[in-house]
Amino acid sequence: MDDLIKQLLDARKKKGITQSTLARSVGLPQSHISSIEQGKVDIRVSTLLEMARILDHEVVVIPREHYSLLMAIIEGKKDIELEPLWKPDEED
Amino acid sequence: MDDLIKQLLDARKKKGITQSTLARSVGLPQSHISSIEQGKVDIRVSTLLEMARILDHEVVVIPREHYSLLMAIIEGKKDIELEPLWKPDEED
DNA sequence: TATAAATATATATTATAACATATAACCTTC
DNA sequence: GAAGGTTATATGTTATAATATATATTTATA
To answer: Does domain B3-74 have CATH number 1.10.260.40?
Structure first.
């Protein structure tokens, strides 16, 4: 399943609401939420954003170079290796 | 314009490629890239992901609580206030 | 094991992204 | 101001998400 969709599914469950409740909030029929969560449809961005918003999440586009760092933070790992914000006099 | 789309546009320009080049990579006509970048269409998630991928970016769904932190990191701010990974004996 | 609640499947319709293609409108730069 | 490269518009077609609705399955609970 698409990773983004999986996260929305996890978020819905964590929030403890049903497909029907989510559907009502987003304005889609429950049947469509079911299809979405099963990865059967390639939803529109507006739909993704609406679902995320209702589920207290945000959708962001990030430079790939930051990806693993952000994932680490989200997953709550300790001892994150931050890229240095400056380098000590890099000369040749 | 949609914030996500704006980021893709910025990314394309920063990468220094044309709509046509991006279009070829993604497999869409240039005319459609134009529409997308002008926010005239509500694209599908697969399209968003493809464009982001080509432009060396990733699309992620994040808990809202992490949003400002991630934005800070992406925008390269110094002195990021990380949420404490532990709290020093929080007692009442 | 009934009953209910939640989720999945089915079907038909409507709206619109994606596609293909062409051309027009902008910009540079010579 | 012509030429080339880039971006925006236009039109028609096709694929499919969204809608509406109903019902079937599955899962939980009394």
So the answer is: yes
Of A90, A92, A25, A28, give the one whose Cα is nearest residue A55.
A25
**Nearest CA to the C1' of D15 belongs to which residue?**
A42
Give the domain ranges of chain A: 3-74
Residue type at A28? L
**Nearest protein residue, CA measured to C1' of C20:** B29
Nucleotides of D under 7 A from a protein CB: 5-11, 16-22
**The pLDDT of residue B76:** 66
Q: Per-residue pLDDT tens for A24-35?
A: 999 999 999 999
Asked if B46 is an interface residue toward chain A (Cβ–Cβ < 8 A), one would say yes
Looking from the CA of A4 toward its CB, the CA atoms found within 13 Å total 25
Mind telling me how many Å the CA of A4 is from chain B's nearest CA? 6
